[in-house]
Design brief:
Length: 376
Amino acid sequence: MSHASLHTSSSTTSDARHPLAPYGWDEAWEAEFAPYAAQGLLPGRVVRVDRGQCDVLTADGVVRADTAYVTPHDPLRVVCTGDWAAVDPAGDPQFVRAYLPRRTAFVRSTSSSRSEGQILAANVDHAIIAVSLAVELDLGRIERFLALAWESGAQPLVVLTKADLVPDATGLSYLVDDVETTAPGVQVLPVSSATGDGVDVLAAVVSGGTSVLLGVSGAGKSTLANALLGADVMAVQAIRDVDGKGRHTTTTRNLLALPGGGVLIDTPGLRGVGLWDAEAGVGQVFSEIEELAVQCRFHDCAHEAEPGCAVLAALEEGALPERRLESYRKLLRENRRIVAKTDARLRAEIGREWRLRSAQGRASMEAKRGGGGRRR
Ligand SMILES: Nc1nc2c(ncn2[C@@H]2O[C@H](COP(=O)(O)OP(=O)(O)O)[C@@H](O)[C@H]2O)c(=O)[nH]1
Ligand SMILES: [Mg+2]
Ligand SMILES: [Zn+2]
Protein backbone atom coordinates (compact mmCIF):
# COMPACT_ATOMS: atom_id res chain seq x y z
CA MET A 1 0.00 0.00 0.00
CA SER A 2 1.40 3.37 -0.96
CA HIS A 3 0.46 6.63 0.68
CA ALA A 4 0.62 9.62 -1.59
CA SER A 5 -0.47 12.78 0.16
CA LEU A 6 -3.57 14.44 -1.24
CA HIS A 7 -2.78 17.70 0.47
CA THR A 8 -0.11 18.97 -1.88
CA SER A 9 -2.63 20.63 -4.20
CA SER A 10 -1.89 24.28 -4.86
CA SER A 11 -5.53 25.24 -4.41
CA THR A 12 -6.44 26.41 -0.95
CA THR A 13 -9.08 24.19 0.59
CA SER A 14 -10.95 25.08 3.73
CA ASP A 15 -10.57 22.79 6.72
CA ALA A 16 -14.24 21.88 6.50
CA ARG A 17 -13.81 20.35 3.04
CA HIS A 18 -13.66 16.60 2.74
CA PRO A 19 -10.20 15.51 1.55
CA LEU A 20 -11.86 13.83 -1.43
CA ALA A 21 -13.86 16.92 -2.45
CA PRO A 22 -11.22 17.94 -5.04
CA TYR A 23 -11.82 14.50 -6.60
CA GLY A 24 -15.56 14.96 -6.93
CA TRP A 25 -16.84 13.73 -3.57
CA ASP A 26 -20.06 15.53 -2.64
CA GLU A 27 -23.00 15.27 -0.27
CA ALA A 28 -24.98 13.06 -2.61
CA TRP A 29 -22.14 10.53 -2.84
CA GLU A 30 -21.71 10.72 0.93
CA ALA A 31 -25.40 9.96 1.47
CA GLU A 32 -25.25 7.00 -0.90
CA PHE A 33 -22.14 5.76 0.80
CA ALA A 34 -23.68 5.82 4.31
CA PRO A 35 -24.55 2.09 4.42
CA TYR A 36 -20.96 1.22 3.49
CA ALA A 37 -19.54 3.68 6.02
CA ALA A 38 -21.68 1.94 8.63
CA GLN A 39 -19.86 -1.30 7.76
CA GLY A 40 -16.52 0.38 8.35
CA LEU A 41 -15.69 0.68 4.64
CA LEU A 42 -13.82 3.70 3.29
CA PRO A 43 -14.81 5.71 0.22
CA GLY A 44 -12.33 6.23 -2.57
CA ARG A 45 -12.26 7.06 -6.25
CA VAL A 46 -10.87 4.50 -8.66
CA VAL A 47 -7.90 5.99 -10.48
CA ARG A 48 -7.09 3.01 -12.63
CA VAL A 49 -7.82 -0.69 -12.97
CA ASP A 50 -5.53 -3.38 -14.24
CA ARG A 51 -5.42 -7.13 -14.02
CA GLY A 52 -7.40 -7.81 -10.89
CA GLN A 53 -6.22 -4.78 -8.98
CA CYS A 54 -6.97 -1.09 -8.88
CA ASP A 55 -5.60 2.12 -7.45
CA VAL A 56 -8.14 3.86 -5.27
CA LEU A 57 -7.72 7.37 -4.05
CA THR A 58 -8.94 7.51 -0.44
CA ALA A 59 -8.68 10.25 2.19
CA ASP A 60 -5.54 8.45 3.42
CA GLY A 61 -3.88 8.38 0.01
CA VAL A 62 -3.73 5.95 -2.88
CA VAL A 63 -4.56 2.39 -1.93
CA ARG A 64 -3.85 -0.61 -4.13
CA ALA A 65 -6.87 -2.83 -3.78
CA ASP A 66 -8.01 -6.18 -5.07
CA THR A 67 -11.06 -6.12 -7.39
CA ALA A 68 -12.17 -9.73 -6.95
CA TYR A 69 -15.52 -8.64 -5.46
CA VAL A 70 -16.26 -6.12 -8.19
CA THR A 71 -15.42 -8.03 -11.37
CA PRO A 72 -18.69 -9.74 -12.23
CA HIS A 73 -19.23 -11.66 -15.45
CA ASP A 74 -21.03 -8.69 -17.03
CA PRO A 75 -18.23 -6.47 -18.41
CA LEU A 76 -20.38 -3.38 -17.94
CA ARG A 77 -20.50 -4.00 -14.21
CA VAL A 78 -16.76 -4.30 -13.75
CA VAL A 79 -15.31 -1.57 -11.55
CA CYS A 80 -13.66 1.17 -13.65
CA THR A 81 -11.83 4.48 -13.53
CA GLY A 82 -14.04 7.15 -12.01
CA ASP A 83 -16.10 4.81 -9.86
CA TRP A 84 -16.62 5.57 -6.19
CA ALA A 85 -15.47 2.46 -4.39
CA ALA A 86 -16.06 1.07 -0.92
CA VAL A 87 -12.71 -0.21 0.30
CA ASP A 88 -12.32 -2.63 3.18
CA PRO A 89 -9.32 -1.23 5.07
CA ALA A 90 -8.84 -4.41 7.08
CA GLY A 91 -6.93 -7.19 5.44
CA ASP A 92 -3.91 -7.56 3.27
CA PRO A 93 -4.55 -7.11 0.40
CA GLN A 94 -7.35 -4.60 0.82
CA PHE A 95 -10.49 -5.30 -1.20
CA VAL A 96 -12.94 -3.13 -3.09
CA ARG A 97 -16.23 -4.48 -1.72
CA ALA A 98 -18.63 -2.48 -3.87
CA TYR A 99 -18.98 0.73 -5.79
CA LEU A 100 -21.71 3.35 -5.85
CA PRO A 101 -24.28 3.42 -8.69
CA ARG A 102 -22.86 5.36 -11.61
CA ARG A 103 -24.25 8.74 -12.58
CA THR A 104 -22.83 8.45 -16.09
CA ALA A 105 -20.79 5.87 -17.95
CA PHE A 106 -18.76 5.67 -21.12
CA VAL A 107 -19.40 2.32 -22.75
CA ARG A 108 -17.77 1.08 -25.90
CA SER A 109 -18.77 -1.94 -27.86
CA THR A 110 -15.53 -3.74 -28.52
CA SER A 111 -14.17 -5.34 -31.66
CA SER A 112 -16.42 -7.52 -33.80
CA SER A 113 -15.48 -10.77 -32.06
CA ARG A 114 -16.46 -9.48 -28.62
CA SER A 115 -19.35 -7.10 -28.90
CA GLU A 116 -20.72 -7.19 -25.39
CA GLY A 117 -19.35 -3.75 -24.56
CA GLN A 118 -16.68 -2.40 -22.32
CA ILE A 119 -16.92 0.20 -19.61
CA LEU A 120 -14.28 2.89 -20.04
CA ALA A 121 -14.99 5.58 -17.47
CA ALA A 122 -17.65 6.33 -14.90
CA ASN A 123 -19.15 9.45 -13.36
CA VAL A 124 -17.99 11.87 -16.03
CA ASP A 125 -19.82 15.22 -16.16
CA HIS A 126 -18.15 16.93 -19.13
CA ALA A 127 -17.04 15.26 -22.34
CA ILE A 128 -14.56 17.61 -23.99
CA ILE A 129 -14.28 16.79 -27.68
CA ALA A 130 -10.97 18.13 -28.96
CA VAL A 131 -10.99 19.03 -32.66
CA SER A 132 -7.89 20.42 -34.34
CA LEU A 133 -8.19 23.56 -36.44
CA ALA A 134 -4.85 22.71 -38.06
CA VAL A 135 -6.59 20.23 -40.35
CA GLU A 136 -9.83 20.37 -42.32
CA LEU A 137 -12.92 19.94 -40.13
CA ASP A 138 -14.46 16.49 -40.27
CA LEU A 139 -18.02 17.19 -39.15
CA GLY A 140 -19.04 13.53 -39.38
CA ARG A 141 -16.35 12.63 -36.91
CA ILE A 142 -17.47 15.37 -34.54
CA GLU A 143 -21.00 14.02 -34.74
CA ARG A 144 -19.78 10.56 -33.87
CA PHE A 145 -17.92 11.81 -30.81
CA LEU A 146 -20.99 13.82 -29.84
CA ALA A 147 -23.18 10.73 -30.05
CA LEU A 148 -21.06 8.76 -27.66
CA ALA A 149 -20.71 11.75 -25.34
CA TRP A 150 -24.49 12.23 -25.13
CA GLU A 151 -24.98 8.49 -24.75
CA SER A 152 -22.74 8.44 -21.68
CA GLY A 153 -24.91 10.97 -19.89
CA ALA A 154 -22.12 13.55 -19.78
CA GLN A 155 -22.56 17.04 -21.23
CA PRO A 156 -20.48 17.39 -24.40
CA LEU A 157 -18.37 20.44 -25.18
CA VAL A 158 -16.47 20.93 -28.44
CA VAL A 159 -13.08 22.53 -28.08
CA LEU A 160 -11.52 23.76 -31.33
CA THR A 161 -7.82 23.46 -30.62
CA LYS A 162 -4.82 25.20 -32.18
CA ALA A 163 -6.87 28.34 -32.88
CA ASP A 164 -3.57 30.21 -33.21
CA LEU A 165 -3.10 28.47 -36.58
CA VAL A 166 -6.21 30.09 -38.07
CA PRO A 167 -4.93 33.32 -39.62
CA ASP A 168 -7.97 35.58 -39.36
CA ALA A 169 -10.84 36.14 -36.95
CA THR A 170 -13.49 35.96 -39.67
CA GLY A 171 -12.24 32.58 -40.77
CA LEU A 172 -12.33 31.39 -37.18
CA SER A 173 -15.88 32.56 -36.65
CA TYR A 174 -17.01 30.65 -39.78
CA LEU A 175 -15.42 27.48 -38.44
CA VAL A 176 -17.10 27.97 -35.07
CA ASP A 177 -20.45 28.52 -36.86
CA ASP A 178 -20.03 25.30 -38.84
CA VAL A 179 -19.40 23.27 -35.73
CA GLU A 180 -22.21 24.96 -33.81
CA THR A 181 -24.71 23.94 -36.51
CA THR A 182 -23.38 20.42 -36.20
CA ALA A 183 -23.66 20.40 -32.43
CA PRO A 184 -27.02 21.76 -31.26
CA GLY A 185 -27.11 22.33 -27.50
CA VAL A 186 -23.35 22.15 -27.24
CA GLN A 187 -20.88 24.91 -26.40
CA VAL A 188 -18.18 25.34 -29.06
CA LEU A 189 -15.02 26.94 -27.77
CA PRO A 190 -11.94 27.88 -29.79
CA VAL A 191 -8.76 27.57 -27.73
CA SER A 192 -5.04 27.74 -28.19
CA SER A 193 -2.73 25.97 -25.82
CA ALA A 194 0.10 27.87 -27.53
CA THR A 195 -1.18 31.36 -26.70
CA GLY A 196 -3.46 30.41 -23.82
CA ASP A 197 -6.50 31.93 -25.56
CA GLY A 198 -9.71 30.33 -24.34
CA VAL A 199 -7.99 28.05 -21.85
CA ASP A 200 -9.35 30.08 -18.92
CA VAL A 201 -12.90 29.71 -20.25
CA LEU A 202 -12.41 25.97 -20.56
CA ALA A 203 -10.89 25.80 -17.07
CA ALA A 204 -14.00 27.50 -15.70
CA VAL A 205 -16.32 25.04 -17.45
CA VAL A 206 -14.48 21.97 -16.21
CA SER A 207 -13.97 23.33 -12.68
CA GLY A 208 -17.26 21.78 -11.62
CA GLY A 209 -17.24 18.00 -11.92
CA THR A 210 -15.28 15.39 -13.79
CA SER A 211 -14.16 15.74 -17.41
CA VAL A 212 -12.72 13.52 -20.10
CA LEU A 213 -10.89 14.56 -23.25
CA LEU A 214 -12.01 12.83 -26.43
CA GLY A 215 -10.61 13.23 -29.91
CA VAL A 216 -8.30 11.65 -32.42
CA SER A 217 -4.56 11.43 -32.01
CA GLY A 218 -2.87 14.76 -32.68
CA ALA A 219 -5.95 16.81 -31.78
CA GLY A 220 -4.01 18.47 -28.99
CA LYS A 221 -5.56 16.67 -26.00
CA SER A 222 -2.37 16.15 -24.02
CA THR A 223 -1.23 19.72 -24.65
CA LEU A 224 -4.61 20.96 -23.49
CA ALA A 225 -4.55 18.72 -20.43
CA ASN A 226 -1.16 20.16 -19.52
CA ALA A 227 -2.48 23.69 -20.00
CA LEU A 228 -5.37 22.90 -17.65
CA LEU A 229 -3.13 21.17 -15.15
CA GLY A 230 -0.57 23.94 -15.27
CA ALA A 231 2.13 21.29 -15.50
CA ASP A 232 3.59 18.89 -18.03
CA VAL A 233 1.83 15.83 -16.76
CA MET A 234 0.73 14.41 -20.09
CA ALA A 235 3.28 13.45 -22.69
CA VAL A 236 2.77 15.50 -25.82
CA GLN A 237 3.05 13.61 -29.10
CA ALA A 238 6.44 14.94 -30.25
CA ILE A 239 8.02 13.87 -26.98
CA ARG A 240 6.42 10.48 -27.26
CA ASP A 241 7.85 10.09 -30.73
CA VAL A 242 11.34 10.92 -29.46
CA ASP A 243 10.81 8.49 -26.64
CA GLY A 244 9.99 5.86 -29.25
CA LYS A 245 8.53 3.42 -26.75
CA GLY A 246 4.98 4.72 -26.83
CA ARG A 247 5.44 5.59 -23.20
CA HIS A 248 3.14 8.17 -21.76
CA THR A 249 2.52 9.29 -18.23
CA THR A 250 -1.22 9.07 -18.79
CA THR A 251 -1.18 5.31 -18.31
CA THR A 252 -0.06 5.70 -14.71
CA ARG A 253 -2.18 8.69 -13.74
CA ASN A 254 -5.65 8.34 -15.21
CA LEU A 255 -7.46 10.69 -12.87
CA LEU A 256 -6.13 14.09 -11.87
CA ALA A 257 -7.42 16.98 -9.80
CA LEU A 258 -7.19 20.28 -11.68
CA PRO A 259 -5.69 23.30 -9.88
CA GLY A 260 -8.70 25.45 -10.82
CA GLY A 261 -11.13 22.81 -9.57
CA GLY A 262 -12.58 19.76 -11.26
CA VAL A 263 -11.15 16.39 -12.17
CA LEU A 264 -9.69 15.16 -15.43
CA ILE A 265 -9.91 11.52 -16.46
CA ASP A 266 -7.67 10.30 -19.23
CA THR A 267 -7.81 6.61 -20.07
CA PRO A 268 -6.28 5.16 -23.22
CA GLY A 269 -9.48 3.49 -24.42
CA LEU A 270 -11.39 6.74 -24.45
CA ARG A 271 -9.13 8.46 -26.93
CA GLY A 272 -9.98 6.73 -30.18
CA VAL A 273 -13.26 6.46 -31.98
CA GLY A 274 -14.47 2.91 -31.79
CA LEU A 275 -17.87 1.51 -32.55
CA TRP A 276 -20.39 2.58 -30.03
CA ASP A 277 -23.91 1.63 -29.20
CA ALA A 278 -25.37 5.11 -28.92
CA GLU A 279 -28.83 5.30 -30.47
CA ALA A 280 -30.11 7.80 -27.90
CA GLY A 281 -26.89 9.76 -28.29
CA VAL A 282 -27.32 9.88 -32.07
CA GLY A 283 -30.81 11.28 -31.53
CA GLN A 284 -29.42 14.06 -29.39
CA VAL A 285 -26.69 14.99 -31.86
CA PHE A 286 -29.30 15.37 -34.58
CA SER A 287 -31.97 16.88 -32.37
CA GLU A 288 -33.11 19.28 -35.12
CA ILE A 289 -33.85 16.30 -37.40
CA GLU A 290 -35.72 14.49 -34.63
CA GLU A 291 -37.72 17.68 -33.98
CA LEU A 292 -38.62 17.88 -37.67
CA ALA A 293 -39.59 14.21 -37.68
CA VAL A 294 -42.31 14.92 -35.14
CA GLN A 295 -44.06 16.95 -37.88
CA CYS A 296 -43.91 14.17 -40.50
CA ARG A 297 -47.33 12.93 -41.57
CA PHE A 298 -46.50 9.32 -40.69
CA HIS A 299 -45.16 8.70 -37.22
CA ASP A 300 -42.94 5.90 -38.54
CA CYS A 301 -41.69 8.03 -41.45
CA ALA A 302 -38.29 6.93 -42.71
CA HIS A 303 -37.71 10.30 -44.43
CA GLU A 304 -36.96 8.53 -47.70
CA ALA A 305 -39.84 9.37 -50.08
CA GLU A 306 -42.92 9.57 -47.86
CA PRO A 307 -45.53 12.26 -48.57
CA GLY A 308 -45.75 14.97 -45.92
CA CYS A 309 -42.23 14.36 -44.71
CA ALA A 310 -41.05 17.43 -42.76
CA VAL A 311 -37.41 16.31 -42.89
CA LEU A 312 -37.37 16.10 -46.69
CA ALA A 313 -39.23 19.43 -46.86
CA ALA A 314 -36.52 21.08 -44.75
CA LEU A 315 -33.91 19.50 -47.01
CA GLU A 316 -35.71 20.93 -50.05
CA GLU A 317 -35.85 24.41 -48.52
CA GLY A 318 -32.18 24.25 -47.69
CA ALA A 319 -32.92 24.56 -43.97
CA LEU A 320 -31.35 21.15 -43.37
CA PRO A 321 -27.97 20.40 -44.98
CA GLU A 322 -27.90 17.17 -46.99
CA ARG A 323 -24.62 16.17 -45.33
CA ARG A 324 -26.33 16.33 -41.97
CA LEU A 325 -29.17 13.98 -42.96
CA GLU A 326 -26.73 11.55 -44.56
CA SER A 327 -24.55 11.55 -41.48
CA TYR A 328 -27.61 10.92 -39.30
CA ARG A 329 -28.62 7.94 -41.43
CA LYS A 330 -25.09 6.59 -41.47
CA LEU A 331 -24.70 6.71 -37.71
CA LEU A 332 -28.12 5.15 -37.14
CA ARG A 333 -27.30 2.33 -39.58
CA GLU A 334 -23.95 1.75 -37.94
CA ASN A 335 -25.54 1.76 -34.54
CA ARG A 336 -28.18 -0.77 -35.53
CA ARG A 337 -25.52 -3.13 -36.83
CA ILE A 338 -23.77 -2.96 -33.46
CA VAL A 339 -27.00 -3.46 -31.56
CA ALA A 340 -27.94 -6.44 -33.71
CA LYS A 341 -24.58 -8.03 -32.97
CA THR A 342 -24.83 -7.30 -29.27
CA ASP A 343 -28.32 -8.74 -29.16
CA ALA A 344 -27.21 -11.93 -30.86
CA ARG A 345 -24.51 -12.25 -28.25
CA LEU A 346 -26.99 -11.53 -25.46
CA ARG A 347 -29.42 -14.09 -26.81
CA ALA A 348 -26.66 -16.69 -26.89
CA GLU A 349 -25.71 -15.78 -23.34
CA ILE A 350 -29.27 -16.02 -22.05
CA GLY A 351 -29.70 -19.32 -23.85
CA ARG A 352 -26.62 -20.68 -22.12
CA GLU A 353 -27.86 -19.50 -18.75
CA TRP A 354 -31.21 -21.21 -19.26
CA ARG A 355 -29.62 -24.49 -20.24
CA LEU A 356 -27.38 -24.25 -17.19
CA ARG A 357 -30.29 -23.53 -14.89
CA SER A 358 -32.46 -26.32 -16.20
CA ALA A 359 -29.49 -28.68 -15.88
CA GLN A 360 -29.05 -27.57 -12.28
CA GLY A 361 -32.78 -27.93 -11.74
CA ARG A 362 -32.69 -31.50 -13.02
CA ALA A 363 -29.70 -32.27 -10.84
CA SER A 364 -31.37 -30.94 -7.72
CA MET A 365 -34.58 -32.85 -8.52
CA GLU A 366 -32.58 -36.03 -8.87
CA ALA A 367 -30.74 -35.27 -5.61
CA LYS A 368 -34.07 -34.80 -3.83
CA ARG A 369 -35.46 -37.97 -5.30
CA GLY A 370 -32.38 -39.76 -4.09
CA GLY A 371 -33.17 -38.56 -0.53
CA GLY A 372 -30.01 -37.73 1.40
CA GLY A 373 -31.13 -34.14 2.14
CA ARG A 374 -28.53 -32.75 -0.25
CA ARG A 375 -29.14 -29.36 -1.75
CA ARG A 376 -27.86 -28.81 -5.30
N1 LIG B 1 0.14 25.58 -32.89
C1 LIG B 1 -0.36 24.81 -31.92
N2 LIG B 1 0.02 23.52 -31.84
C2 LIG B 1 -0.51 22.76 -30.86
C3 LIG B 1 -1.47 23.28 -29.94
N3 LIG B 1 -1.83 22.29 -29.12
C4 LIG B 1 -1.14 21.20 -29.49
N4 LIG B 1 -0.32 21.46 -30.55
C5 LIG B 1 0.59 20.53 -31.21
O1 LIG B 1 -0.17 19.45 -31.78
C6 LIG B 1 0.55 18.23 -31.70
C7 LIG B 1 -0.29 17.14 -31.05
O2 LIG B 1 -0.58 17.51 -29.72
P1 LIG B 1 -0.91 16.44 -28.56
O3 LIG B 1 -1.26 17.24 -27.36
O4 LIG B 1 0.15 15.43 -28.40
O5 LIG B 1 -2.20 15.74 -29.19
P2 LIG B 1 -3.00 14.45 -28.65
O6 LIG B 1 -2.56 13.31 -29.50
O7 LIG B 1 -4.44 14.77 -28.92
O8 LIG B 1 -2.71 14.28 -27.21
C8 LIG B 1 1.83 18.54 -30.92
O9 LIG B 1 2.86 18.71 -31.84
C9 LIG B 1 1.49 19.83 -30.22
O10 LIG B 1 2.66 20.61 -29.98
C10 LIG B 1 -1.84 24.67 -30.06
O11 LIG B 1 -2.65 25.22 -29.33
N5 LIG B 1 -1.26 25.37 -31.09
MG1 LIG C 1 -1.93 12.63 -26.18
ZN1 LIG D 1 -40.18 12.16 -42.53
